[in-house]
Amino acid sequence: MRIIVTGGAGYIGSHTVLQLLEHGHDVAVYDNLSNSSPVSLERVQELAGREVRTTWGDLLDVEALDDFFDGFEADAVVHFAGLKAVGESTKIPHQYYVNNVVGTLNLLAAMKKHSMESLVFSSSATVYDPQNPLPLLEDMRRGATNPYGRTKQQIEEILEDVAASDSSWRIAVLRYFNPVGAHESGRIGEDPVGPPNNLVPFVSQVAVGVRPSVRVFGDDYDTPDGTGVRDYIHVVDLAAGHLAALEYLESHSGLFTWNLGTGRGTSVLEVIRAFAEAAGKPVPYEIVERRPGDVAVSLADPSKALRELGWKAVRPFELMCADHWRWQESNPQGYPST
Ligand code: UD1
Questions:
Q1: In sequence order, which residues have a C-beta less than 8 Å from that of residue 170 and are 6 or more positions away?
Q2: What SS3 state is found at 246?
Q3: How far is CA 195 from the centre of its chain?
Q4: pLDDT in tens, 211-229
Q5: pLDDT of amino acid 10
Q6: Per-residue pLDDT tens digits for 246-268
Q7: Sign of torsion, CA 331 183 107 74?
Q8: Which of 33, 85, 109, 294 maximizes the CB count within 10 A of its CB?
């Protein structure tokens, strides 16, 4: 297939582009590099031994987007591009809505214009209402609690309306749980700009000595050890979910939603211990106040993806830590600046 990938230079995007190339697909990336490095795709090309077409452009630049679509006739689009920091989204909500929601609307218009109606969209477990029972199933209530999450929720709603209005659309909405880890080569991985907001990249930077200690946000939750429990998923398994979804869309029209998680929970203290083990060094931490907006537990029921896509996350948490650490240790400052 010929696949367009927006945000393909980013963390999940680069791992997905690599797998697409490895499976023989031709890939064109459209990325504004606002939170990614072009080096990721140089390395993806080295690893795959194949080339990726890259265009450094913004989804808000309608003319550039149109030119890009004119230049690459694709069978499907995988849409990762978007802003994704919860804290930041509460400070600059307007930018989040414009970037994520308007960016997606522009993408949909460009797709329709070029008669390309197959789309895989990066959504998030954050769209679920925190009042839902656990584990989370795809048909449970949405109720995002911050502007970032609401951009994902609104895009899901837009995609549902679009798919309902016109049966030529084929849309997969993938709700990611907590992606961690890196490709086994250690050549590509997560490279956050500034202090990481998420736990595993933070722990990883402490282990490598870039930061002094991890702040554990609360140890009085109703969980076995009192710290927050999440469903961490290896980014390589997550990337494989996109290929499974693309394949499914080849023979199904309409809109489909799938959780991509493992169904297994790991607490903050378990993360710190497992990571210290993988890195072979202690990871200092201190217990601090809860982080506002956090839930005690988030856990996927991933059985729908297994049933319908034949996809399942197979990499255990220890491997997520070992792979994340290999990337961090060989790239302590992330990608080199260009
Ligand atoms: C966060 C976002 C979520 C987003 C996801 C992307 C919030 C409230 N939610 O999810 O919308 O989709 O990232 O991966 O930001 N923790 C610490 N110390 C840290 C960082 C985190 O103790 O320095 C704890 C948190 O309290 C939580 C767990 O680690 O219990 C995981 O946190 P994080 O990696 O930020 O993921 P989420 O909160 O699940």
A1: 76, 117, 118, 119, 249, 252, 253, 254
A2: helix
A3: 18
A4: 999 999 999 999 999 999 9
A5: 98
A6: 999 999 999 999 999 999 999 99
A7: positive
A8: 85
Q: Which atom of ligand 1 is nearest to the CA of 203?
A: 23
Written as six digits, the tokens of 263 are 């169904």
Write the Ramachandran bin of 7: left for phi over 0, alpha for psi from -120 to 50, otherwise beta. left
Cα dihedral across residues 313, 316, 317, 320: positive or negative: negative
Ligand 1 contact, 110 CB (< 6 A): no
Residue 338: pLDDT above 90? Answer: no
Nearest-5° angle of CA 115, CA 121, CA 126? Answer: 155
Q: Is the Cβ atom of 265 under 6 angstroms away from ligand 1?
A: no
Q: Cα(172)–Cα(200) distance, rounded to whole angstroms?
A: 27
When pLDDT is averaged across residues 104-121 and rounded to a whole number, the result is 98
The C-alpha atoms of residue 296 and residue 206 are separated, in whole angstroms, by 23
Indicate if the alpha-carbon torsion angle 335, 82, 306, 224 is positive or negative. Answer: positive
Is any atom of ligand 1 closer than 6 Å to the C-beta of 90?
A: no
What's the whole-number mean pLDDT along residues 34-58? 98
Question: How many whole angstroms separate alpha carbon 179 and alpha carbon 192?
Answer: 13
40 pLDDT above the threshold of 90: yes
Residue 298 CA, ligand 1 centroid: distance in Å: 10
- How many whole angstroms separate alpha carbon 219 and alpha carbon 177? 21
Tokens for 272?
């710190």
Domains recognised in the chain with CATH numbers: 2-181+232-262+301-313 (3.40.50.720)
Task: Give the distance, in angstroms, between the CA of residue 216 and the centroid of all CA atoms in the same chain.
Answer: 23
Quote the CA–CA distance of 302 and 98 in Å, as a whole number.
31
Q: Which of 30, 97, 148, 248 is catalytic?
A: 148
Residue 313 tokens, joined = 């996350």
Rounded Cα distance, 64 and 70, in Å: 10
- Average pLDDT along the chain: 98
What is the C-alpha separation between 297 and 131, in angstroms, rounded?
Answer: 11
Question: Is 335 in the active site?
Answer: no
